[in-house]
Amino acid sequence: MSVDPIALSQGVLAGERRALARAITLIESTRADHREAAEELLHRLLPHAGRSVRVGITGVPGAGKSTFIESFGLHVVEKGHKLAVLAVDPSSPRSGGSILGDKTRMEDLSRDIRAFIRPSPSGCTLGGVARRTREAMLVCEAAGFDVVVVETVGVGQSETAVADMVDMFLLLLVPGGGDELQGIKKGIVELADAVVVNKADGDLAVAAKRAARDYTNALHLLTPANTAWNVPVLTVSSLERSGVGDVWETIGRFKQTMEGIGRFTERRAEQAHAWMWNEIAETLLQSLKDDSRVAALLPSLETRVSHGQLAPGAAARQLVQAFRGQ
Length: 326
Description:
single chain, 13 helices, Rossmann fold, 3 domains, seven-stranded parallel sheet, Single alpha-helices involved in coiled-coils or other helix-helix interfaces, 7 strands, alpha/beta
């Protein structure tokens, strides 16, 4: 597609939803000419970004993340805010496209003009966070969305991926699993700024309260991410939309606390720095893969490594040396 980044940036700043969708499609493209246009677009939008509250949401499979986000999102827009949801879906191994399509799972929220939902394929990115999710956040902020939610596929290998791009990280859990702490890694709990026990309704209402107590006790044994903030454990019924107001108020208190100690701005600066180095690593790796000298050596080195004739480290050094022209 032919892209005019100047016209596209003007459309995004005017709040045009079609322009917003096209802008995110552009930044997700892997074509070299599209990356140049995307960088120009982001350069124009960057001064208008950064004014939202960024919330990351992850959780165990079956925790009801999409149902929670819809209930939470409807509450937020009713409070007068504009909400963008970047829902990172599992990728099809054949086409690379999204499998689930969160718009079909958030019907009421997707129909609300004050909300914007964008499912993106997770691809091969660890933790189910699309590589361009950070850039998509900036575009949404420039379009006037003051609350941005990033939903991940689930608890994966790289939970820090979402925690390193948002202001507040929510861990969504469910009651009724016997030992409530089974199957949940200590690291993911330590990253959480708030724990939300979902499905606190019907037959699970009592179990949800019990689970909340268990998690509260467990959190006392862990090292807090921030000594100025005690991680709360909240109970929510997404179906009945009860408790979502408490989650929104908790986000507000967290932001106010972090701003009070200067940690909010400091954290965003650290994230931008880490983002830059991540892009350096990704760009260098792609350049190495695209290099003709590397491509010529790669098949034979892969064969030798597979057959145990060459150590992987030695093969890697040979590829890097070829890339550097040595």
